[in-house]
Amino acid sequence: MPRHLTEDAPFLRTPDMYQIERDAPISEYPKQAIDLIADAVNGGVPEGANAFCSVGKEKRGTVQMQLFAVVDASEDRFVEVGFRSHGCLAAIACATAIATLLRGKTIAEALEITREDITALTGELPESRAYTYIFALEAIRALVGNYCLKQKGYSIADLDAFAPCQKLSVPCMLTENCSLRDDRVEQELKERGELKG
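Now predict its structure.
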């Protein structure tokens, strides 16, 4: 039987976590990741969310991480962070890990989160799912970018000075779907006077 059809790979169906494909065998996941997924304390949209992002990739359906955050504008600090994730167990583990890591951090501190920080919570995920670390880091950038553009009124130049766009980088290319791209295009059109709002 092919590995991706192994019987011990569980399927999750909740409002915030939806596993859309057969996964690596559960035995390839560290206990840390399974416990993190089982608890999923950050699932859902926190009340009063004022920042949002969605990143992912098309792969036999959408592999996606969505983050929703309440950011205190007086300190630019994450107060609450929730997530929704569709895809494999690794995507779900990474989404809940970054929601945990972001709470209490400023937007500048959020951009300093590394793969090692995520791995400290998830354990080392199966190599076939390593791309989910990239999605997680891109989701942080997208969430910060959304907040800066939508809540702080940054221009594209302001955003690029604070969190430069990494156009055509490997992480950017792997992350086929990124809401920050849409936010940037909308802002660029506003700045050129081609879009009201």
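The chain has eight helices and five strands.
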